[in-house]
Amino acid sequence: MSDEPSQLSDFNERFEDPAEDPLFVFDEDDPNRADVFARKELLKVGHVPESARIVGRDDEIEAIAAELRPLVRGDPPNNVMIYGKTGTGKSLVARHVTERARRAAESNGVSVGTVYVDCAQYNTQTRVARTVTRSLNESGRTDLNIPRAGIGSGEYYDYLWEILNTAYESVVIILDEVDRLNDDDILMQLSRARESGKADCHLGVIAVSNKIEYRDQLNERVKSSLREEEFVFQPYDANQLRDIMKHRRDAFYDGVVSDDVIPLTAALAAQEHGDARKAIEILRHAGELAERSNTDVVTEEHVRDAQEWAEIDRFEELLRGSTTQVKFILYSLALLTDESSSDDGFSTSKIYERYQETTQKVEAKVLSEHRVYELLKEQAFLGVVESTRTGGGRGEGSYLEHRLVQDTGIVLKSVLRDSRLKDLA
Ligand SMILES: Nc1ncnc2c1ncn2[C@@H]1O[C@H](COP(=O)(O)OP(=O)(O)O)[C@@H](O)[C@H]1O
Ligand SMILES: [Mg+2]
Questions:
Q1: Is it true that domain 34-44+248-319 has CATH number 3.40.630.30?
Q2: Domain 51-233, CATH class in plain words
Q3: Which residues lie with the beta carbon below 6 Å from any ligand 1 atom?
Q4: What distance in angstroms lies between residue 308's CA and the mean position of ligand 2's atoms?
Q5: What is the pLDDT of residues 255-275, one digit of tens each?
Q6: Can you tell me the distance from the alpha carbon of 244 to that of 56, in angstroms, rounded to the nearest whole number?
Q7: Cβ pair 392, 370 in contact under 8 A
Q8: Where in the chain is the domain with CATH 1.10.8.60?
């Protein structure tokens, strides 16, 4: 399977002049068109803003820089592991520090290659090895021709060691969302590369995880060969979020964002845990809602609508890669939760009953109870469901009880977006 994006090459629609495509005419002079965003890229989550916009992470930046600092003099950097909840600036700080290290090293005459891998997208050993190898190769220092498909991770590693040996003194690889990897052997390969004599080049790994429990799941062998320094990023408080958001205000034209909008986004994002990503997404979406309704003022109402949207979106992100079967299970659990007046969880068999009804309604395949149990446990690992063991009353053994972490409204809206569940709505 190839991960390369495919072309819409068999697209046949023809207009005399594609600029006239009525779906996409863009009328600069339309008097009703609202001017909302001046620099929308400032509200893109993956955007790495300049230092002046990074607020309240000086200590973390300094500490991680210290781990990479040796490479500026041509010495081996330390491996780093960053843990913390979503939206605490882990990806941002990892990229920011790595890029600054690369520049500082380069100006010292040390060549440093850097790669950023989103392991949620590239979640197998082969995909990671391919991404790392191809992107280091592309920077033009080697003229290898590395196939996109048809070879396995072993061959990609061979290319990788060759590139590392010929083109760089140091390489820093950021493995973001590392807990999404379906196999931690890649960490092993990378951390062993040097001691096993495969690569001459210094290799630093910055692994980033949203789950603190990830450390306990790591294989001992991996841990001992990674020998990484660990950092935990704490959630932001409402004041920090407000500062972060103030520094993005110029994403909008003057006067578009009223005074209470920024504190409101910050407060909404601080409710669950201090999540800067959520704050930024809410603000961007609020702007889009204003734009769509042709007004050039972002109001409190836009922000509140955007918040609900952000929660659904976040939930879908958690479910990314889950099957429709998982959605049937979550749907069933959401219905049970809605009907119940207590906060208790539900046993697997209770959920299974409802799941059977659901799947029968839409004539979908019905999985076994054991399989449903396994899928629930998987969802607990992903943080969608919380599973706790009951004490086990008289005459009863203890068993697992599952409950949804998110609001049922959000869960239902989100799973019902799946076309196979639409009929249930
Ligand atoms: N300290 C900060 N200063 C400015 N922007 C931040 C800060 N922390 C996070 N952000 C912004 O919030 C969003 C989420 O941050 P990110 O680094 O992706 O979080 P994480 O990787 O921990 O989930 C990004 O758009 C990022 O630019
Ligand atoms: Mg991240």
A1: no
A2: alpha beta
A3: 45, 49, 53-57, 84, 86-92, 244, 276-277, 280
A4: 21
A5: 999 889 999 999 998 887 889
A6: 8
A7: no
A8: 34-44+248-319
